[in-house]
Amino acid sequence: MFFELIGTIVAGVAAALLVWAINRPLKGRLPRWLMPVAAGAAMLLAAISSEYGWYDRTRERMPEGMVVAQTIEERSFYRPWTYAAPYVTRFVAVDVAAKRTHPDQPGQRIVDLVFYGRWARTAKIPMLFDCAEGRRADIADGVAFAPDGAVEGADWRAAPEGDPVFAAACAEV
Hints:
Keywords: Membrane, Transmembrane, Transmembrane helix. This protein has 173 residues and is an alpha+beta fold. It is 32% helix and 34% strand. The longest helix has 27 residues, at 34-60. The two termini are 36 Å apart.
């Protein structure tokens, strides 16, 4: 966040210096308001570029074996350009490389879901999926695993139809 602020300020200063450098040989013929308007426009464009580029930059830096399962786009009234082109503010990735299964329960697996958010900490949460039955459960207190891999004490919930997180967790790699 700090570096984005510095980048935004640098963009504004660079635009103001560019207008100043153009105005020097013209002997001050450009309007006086052009320098602050150019600086403000450059700062606004730098901030917008940073917001729209966050998702791609973050996705490129994800470790090997991570699959983006779901993205959440945002629109807001104080950013009117987001109504024309919403930008991704959060997304869920499934760590398929760290998938854990039991030989006696081939339809069940534990995968780590990683929640990314703009201006938010990354959260990593393990979740249990029963791909054969179309359900999932949080791994919480009271969940136990029998020697044969059977899950005891899990609060199973049916996976919604077309759930991208369930599909990514149950996809064979």
